[in-house]
Specification:
Length: 348
């Protein structure tokens, strides 16, 4: 049996404790929080509630700590837990920059403990579908991927609105969307360009557009917007012989696949809905097929199953420190690009 403790028993930590599927050999035992109301909630949810960090870290039965506080305190708590000999699962983003993360990884190495990030959206069904289409080359050579999350309610009045707490949408959603793309495309990122806007916020970004160009030529756009009354598709992926789109979280969408590329251009400019145009004249209908999106395997228990296997020495981490670092380095460059308003060349 492995006993886990929690630092920061807020919304996400209670989700870990009560909702995320876990092997029965993992049991959350205790939590520490600075808010008395959250300690009370922890007690109600069957946990021992510690009102100080040392008490939690001195609990010898606990071998792993979940850090689920606001983003600015991840580094401090993860390091304290690892120095106490505990393994650490840190909520995303694990740190505010790559430098902080490097310090955390050094401590993990020094104390020989396991450290990973809960970058769980690698198992979201929309992403798994995109990954299946990409991996199985259903669209031919893919040259463009667009991944978006959009809403219209702005940011709730919590620490997520505060810069000093690591608020803002690149930290909040960007980290997931970047992680997904990096796990998809097997090629180094050679440039990053990002634009940040504050449409509903005064301190932090609530509208981000980030373009990553890969060495293999593929261009990926990640976009997060919180003032979008009409939402663009979650995913748009274009390959040489097909295009796929996932419209929304209900997984509606389709693929348009080329079945005949023998284009016969007209001798005379045709009159089309866009006016006279040979280039944009519609294709002959019988050269394309519309296909449904494929089904993808989703294992929502993957994270804790893998973590248990790692603790028992039977597997490697599925979310590896070098992957977490790569994602953080892209985020660092994105912030710099936004600040300096220029493309950042790199090899990450
Ligand atoms: P939250 O505000 O609901 O919870 C944060 C908790 O930390 C609160 O109970 C608060 O009292 C406590 N806290 C604040 N400062 C503290 C401190 N200095 N020491 C100890 N406790 C402190 O926030 P949340 O939505 O649960 O987010 C927590 C973390 O989880 C964030 O890093 C966030 O990015 C992450 N998160 C991840 C996912 C995911 O899908 N992986 C989803 C939501 C949130």
């Amino acid at each position: 049996m492995h006993y886990f403790g929690i630092i920061g028993y807020g919304g996400m930590a209670s989700y870990h404790h009560l909702r995320i599927e876990k092997p029965e050999q993992i049991r959350f035992k205790a939590a520490f929080d600075i808010a008395p109301a959250r300690l009370e909630k922890a007690r109600k949810d069957g946990l021992i509630a510690y009102d100080n960090l040392d008490a939690l870290l001195n609990d010898e039965q606990i071998d792993t700590i979940l850090v689920a506080t606001p983003n600015d305190s991840h580094k401090e708590y993860a390091i304290a837990a690892m120095e106490a000999g505990k393994n650490v699962i840190c909520e995303k983003p694990v740190a505010l920059n790559a430098q902080e993360l490097a310090q955390m990884l050094k401590v993990a190495e020094k104390h020989g403990v396991v450290f990973t990030a809960h970058q769980n959206r690698r198992m979201d069904e929309d992403y798994r579908i995109i990954k299946k289409i990409y991996d199985e080359n259903m669209l031919g050579d893919v040259f463009r991927i667009e991944s978006r999350v959009q809403g219209s309610r702005g940011i709730a009045d919590t620490w997520r609105r505060r810069k000093d707490k690591g608020g803002g949408m690149l930290y909040d959603w960007g980290v997931h969307l970047i992680d997904q793309i990096l796990c998809l495309v097997d090629s180094p990122v050679v440039s990053v360009f990002a634009e940040f806007q504050q449409i509903t916020q005064t301190e932090v970004d609530d509208n981000v557009r980030l373009t990553m160009t890969f060495q293999n030529g593929l261009s990926a756009l990640v976009e997060i917007g919180l003032c979008n009354y009409i939402m663009l598709p979650l995913w748009y992926m274009a390959g040489k012989t097909g295009t796929a789109q996932i419209d929304y979280w209900d997984l509606s969408g389709k693929m348009h696949l080329l079945i005949d590329n023998d284009i016969k251009f007209e001798d005379e400019i045709p009159s089309t809905l866009v006016g006279p145009s040979i280039t944009l004249a519609p294709r002959a209908e019988d050269t394309m097929a519309v296909a449904p999106l494929p089904k993808a395997d989703v294992d929502k228990a993957f994270f804790y199953k893998n973590f248990l296997d790692v603790l028992d020495g039977n597997a490697e981490l599925c979310i590896k420190p070098q992957e977490i670092m790569r994602c953080m380095q892209i985020m660092d460059l994105a912030f710099l690009s936004g600040k300096e308003k220029r493309v950042m060349n790199c090899k990450i």
